[in-house]
Amino acid sequence: MTVVINMRDGLDERGIRIAARFILEGKLVAFPTETVYGLGADALNENAVRRIFEAKGRPADNPLIVHIAEFDDLKKLAREVPREAKLLAERFWPGPLTMVLPKREEVPYVTTGGLDTVAVRMPAHPIALALIKASTPIAAPSANISGKPSPTLAEHVIDDFYGRIECIIDGGETKIGVESTVIDLSSERPTLLRPGGLPLEEIEKVIGEVEIHPAVRGKLVDVARSPGMKYKHYSPSAQVIVVEGKRENVRRKIAELVDEYRAKGFRVGVMATEEYDSDEFFHLGKTEEEVARNLFRALRELDKRGVDVIIAEGIEERGLGFAVMNRLRKAAGYRIVWA
Predict the structure, then answer these.
(1) pTM of structure
(2) Of 330, 176, 150, whose CA–CA distance to 242 is shortest?
(3) What SS3 state is found at 334?
(4) What is the pLDDT of residues 171-185, one digit of tens each?
(5) What does the pLDDT read at residue 88?
(6) Angstrom distance (rounded) from CA 112 to CA 49
(7) I want to staple 94 with a disulfide (CB 3.0 to 4.6 A). Which of 2, 4, 85, 122 is the partner?
(8) Which residue has the higher pLDDT, 220 or 330?
(9) What DSSP string runs through 195-239?
(10) Mean pLDDT computed over every residue of the chain
(11) For residues 146 and 53, is the Cβ–Cβ distance under 8 A?
């Protein structure tokens, strides 16, 4: 049985104590953060962390992010905390930034995907922070079946995990809608491993130029130094096609593709910033913030409506648009139509 704790109207101390007890007993708790919902376990309990991988069907070499509530907790997890990490934490924590650092011996290799580094962040969500403070540092990937779109509502978590984990905290819709930005600070040059909820431009204002790992642009890698680098991610059951190019050309190409697939007998869904004549339509919003917030919800919703093909409008790669396009291209398996 899964206990669902309703905190849509705000923090519930009794509910936090119940969820924290589950964590300390080595059980699994799904909880909201400002980015997406996480599937959490005690980061220092090997058996508990293994249950995350089993529940999600997640490959063992795909590292997890450890969530903390105080900066001092970082020193318990990381062997070294360079100057850049201190500057970024001071500026952006709590917030959607994950930093990869050399790990201490106390951090199990199961948590780090077998790596000598650990990915750490401090979430900017009152429920997440309260849960961590009441328990321990929590290892938590997104609370979805591995490879599927990340959850931005408790209903998404319930769809994937009800009856399979001990507890789900319902904190309503997440604010940002895409996962955290991951920066590797374990080597000489700061490197972006995954674009996310904190735009790269903001990070570079604090620590200068950041190298972009080739995996961000779709290059295959043998070793995943961060979540989101190596394996199939964010994909609904329907086939996803991303249309990119100049706005007027994109609009024309999407309309053509809708007609083409419908003529073949497929049910077609479109997710875009303006409406299209299709079997199903999901309006992503107008701003990059709205598009990011609605991205995974759109993929899940169109899947539920029974479409065979989802045609997604590409947006400009600036600010949160960089993370949006990274997720869309991965969801599509890099099936991209240039208009």
Answers:
(1) 0.95
(2) 330
(3) coil
(4) 999 999 999 999 999
(5) 98
(6) 10
(7) 122
(8) 330
(9) --SS-HHHHHHHH---EE-GGGGT---SS-SSTTSSS--S--SSE
(10) 95
(11) no
Tokens of 219: 């290059």
- Model confidence at 231: pLDDT above 60: no
- How far does Cα 325 stand from its chain's mean position? 13
Residue with tokens 């497929």: 266
Judged by phi (left if over 0) then psi (alpha if -120 to 50, else beta), residue 37 lies in: beta
Around 184, how many Cα atoms within 13 Å sit in the side-chain half-sphere?
21
- 58 Rama sector, left if φ>0, alpha if ψ -120 to 50, beta otherwise: beta
Any idea how long the chain is?
339
Among candidate residues 234, 243, 248, 202, the one with its CA nearest the CA of residue 298: 234
Tens digits of residue pLDDT in 106-136? 999 999 999 999 999 999 999 999 999 999 9
Show the domains of the chain with their CATH numbers.
3-217 (3.90.870.10), 239-338 (3.40.50.11030)
pLDDT at 234: 78
Torsion, Cα 168 171 175 179, to 10 degrees, reads -10
